Structure prediction request, 738 residues.
Amino acid sequence: MSSEIAGDTLRDEESHPAGRPRVPKNKKRSGVTERDRPLWLLAPGGFLITVIILVPLVLALYMSVIDLDQYTLRKWLSTPFIGIENFVEAITKTELLRSIWISVSFAVIATVVTVPLGVAAAVVTQNPYRGRAVVRAVFLVPYVLPSFVVATVWRTMLQPDGIVNNILHGAGIDPGLWLNGPMSYWTLIFVEIWAAWPFVYLLALAGLQSVDHEVHEAAAIDGALWWRKLREVIFPYLRGPVSLAFLLGTLNHINNFTLPFVLFGAPAPADVNVLPILVYVTSFQSFRFGLSAAMAVVSLILIAIPLFIYLRAVKLDVSEDGGKK
Amino acid sequence: MDGSGKTLTVLFSTKPQYPDEQKAWFTKTAADFKTLTGATLQWETYPTANDEMTRIQTSVVSGTGPDVYGLGTTFTPTAYSTGAFVKLGDAEWNKVGGKDKFVPATLGISGPDANNQIGIPFVSRPFVMAYNTELLKAAGIEAPATTWDEFADHGKKMTKAGQYGLAIAYKDNFDPWKFIWGMSIQAGNPIIDGKKVRIDDPTVLAAYEAYFGWITKDKSVDPAAIGWGNAQALAAFAAGRAGYFPMTSPLSIPTLDKSVIKGKYKYALLPLVPPGMTSRPSGGVEAASILSGDNLVVADYSPNKDLAFAFIKMITDTVAQADYYKIFGEIPTNVEAAKALQSDPLVAPALDAASKSVATPFSGAWGDVQLALTNIAVQTIPDLSAGSVSEASLTGRIKDSQAKAQAALDRAK
Prediction:
């Protein structure tokens, strides 16, 4: 997209005769002028965005309005156009809305828990002490393990006769079922939190590293106690990284396919029929490629709206504010 | 045939249990093929059904890809519905050595009818029931069950402290629908009946009630089995903790021969009389197993069709099939090679099961029916954990599955 915009801008610039009186837009401007910006440097990025994002997106949009399934796959270019039928079916006849609700609610809960955990872990490992390197390494273990491994290990532990239930039985608690039924929703959240908090930790740690040494000194001289110092001096530095972690974390949770797939299998129990599993089953077990594309588009729209509001609210997308604390 | 300078690409599924053996077999087969035709054989593999589907999709859409595909039998209808594979006329069958060289039952899922076939049977994996000879004897059972009621009854008899009558994989992603389909067809309900799906038929409800009843009412299954896949059920049986392990195949021989029950187990046909009955009703089918195994299909975009059929002829000939059985334990589809195995009492029931296998309905909607049947079992697991399945909730799930499967069948072309 940027390449197109870049191209247009160039053309606009060229279409103005050189002798035209120019309105000084910005007096403070320095360095490379807007006119001479080497916009062609955006071309590689623009090309990648086109190939990696735009083309698949357009294909998905096209697929969502045609009747593409196993019967029509071979002649997909002449597959009948059915307009919004896939969308109507996705919303009225499938579990799509329920799956979106499960996915979004699970993702938000997981993020709300992982953010304070990650920040706390970063604060704990901020000041040097004996063994800090070991603690930092241990904190990264869940993040380094592939999702597949994490899910397999937890699935084994949470079996009806697995180690978790054996321990609970030993303590006189009847644990019930973890991997199916209403509890499975909380199992999913728990395992996701276990696997995902180090991501917030890493971002928060990066934020803490950017706090100038003088700020710590000034706070100490002013006699600020630890909580006040943390709340009023340190946390403002973390606003950017943590807002970003909140955003990326939530999106990662929503998009996580491997974890629920390996933990619960497909077809998934109704309580953990998350969006990626629903789209997978529709695509690869029912072979309704058009319908699953429509599902993806609906969920993209539903998730993009709050995302946009969030982006405006925390101003992550406004570059001028990026550096402000 | 002179294939020198040409390359034939073949897509097979990987065998996680036998990685080295498979590699060796690939190399040897490629060398044999080179000697035979002068052409190079290139193997490609897929690890999961998902990758298989992705490969087929890409190839179907782009019109390029492997020349020959090895497909699971139940996937053949879906492949057929894409229309991307060569339909086998007399000429094609002759090129692979004639239809007569295959065990007739194994052709049952090659196509919707005898004139529209795409699949050439490569191996059979018929389902049988394994039983622990000592546990049966100790419970005073003389012969393995032949009806599902008898099966349940034996299960109860063999259940006592530290041991259960039955090893059932309730959490498996495939086993449940095989039980339900088997019991239903034995009662005369093929589930897809022309243009109608019959999941809401009383025979299906009876099948689920029997299947769930083994754990909830009879208590002849380990309560932990609600979390088991087929491998865990096999492990429980191999540890000598269960009398019957239905829904297995001779592929379990290597595992069982390394276990404590080596020499103390045998295979038998799965029961052939539906639950609640003492003999099959009229219209009931003597179905010992779903028709299971691998089919070979040739892509119709392939420029090397003659080479493809020469390759298929080579690996379905008697000697090659006997070798393949020796390495991987998969039952030959070649008549002669299968006959030679009948002298082995351990494998004989599997051969019997192969000849009494019945194909699941040849419909592009079968995938959805299978999914719907499995989904009922998945959503019922919390009830199994609680110890009882109410008829109301089961009927509700059946109704829901019926609607989804019927919608899929209505779309079928």
Summary: The radius of gyration of chain A is 25 Å. Confidence is low (pLDDT under 50) at residues 1-21, 320-325 of chain A.
